[in-house]
From TrEMBL:
InterPro entries: P-loop_NTPase (IPR027417). Residues 182-206 are annotated as: Disordered. It comes from the Bacteria. This is Uridine kinase. It comes from Streptomyces griseoloalbus. SUPFAM superfamilies: P-loop containing nucleoside triphosphate hydrolases (SSF52540).
């Protein structure tokens, strides 16, 4: 993981002074956990979770809000303020600050969408098949979310059919029993390097 973090730090800024790193993948593929661990190794880099940007009414139609609330201010080197969505009350909450840190991690389904890629320094794809990902997500959320998941699966299929992310990923992330394997993605990498394999034992700071 430290090798991956070092690779990210060597990248040039992509959104004003910020290196914007996207972690995309199917719902249930482990994006949040991986993004949190990556952010920790990057010294506590801010993580923007797209669950805070999407809503029941706009599962994927949040591009304009993300651009205006987050990417445009960051592009000017300013602290962004976005209103996180509460999935229980179905309301947007008070604005939350997001500073223009050297690296900002954006994680969520659709983080590598067409409209965002010009602002990204690196696109990572959690390489878990969609059916396996969805099964993990359903098991995690329980029976009470079954109806939501039925609607989500349809929406996700439609989104990726028209705006796929994986073909444009710089790196693929595969979770194993003892950690993650990071491999070159379909879009290639910004530098020549062998695949990176990371364990999750405490001695490796995982």
């Amino acid at each position: 993981m430290h090798d991956l973090a070092a690779r990210i730090r060597r990248l040039g800024p992509s959104c004003g002074p910020v290196r914007l790193v996207a972690v995309d993948g199917h719902a249930g593929s482990g994006k949040s956990t991986f993004a949190g661990r990556l952010a920790g190794v990057l010294g506590g880099a801010p993580v923007l979770r797209l669950d805070d940007v999407a809503s029941h009414e706009e599962l994927f139609a949040w591009t304009g809000r993300l651009l205006s609330q987050v990417l445009e201010p960051l592009g000017r080197g300013e602290t962004a303020h976005y209103a996180p969505y509460d999935w229980r009350t179905r309301r947007f909450g008070p604005p939350r600050p997001l500073p223009p840190a050297p690296v900002v991690v954006v994680e969520g389904v659709g983080a590598g969408r067409r409209a965002l890629r010009p602002h990204l320094a690196l696109l990572l794809w959690m390489d878990l098949p969609r059916e396996e990902s969805w099964a993990r997500g359903r098991a995690r959320d329980g029976e009470e979310q079954r109806e939501f998941w039925d609607g989500w699966v349809r929406a996700e299929r439609e989104h990726f059919a028209g705006d796929p992310s994986r073909p444009f990923a710089d790196l693929l992330v595969r979770q194993g029993r003892k950690g993650y394997e990071v491999l070159p993605g379909p879009a290639g990498t910004s530098e020549s390097a062998p695949p990176l394999t990371h364990g999750d034992e405490s001695s490796a700071m995982w």
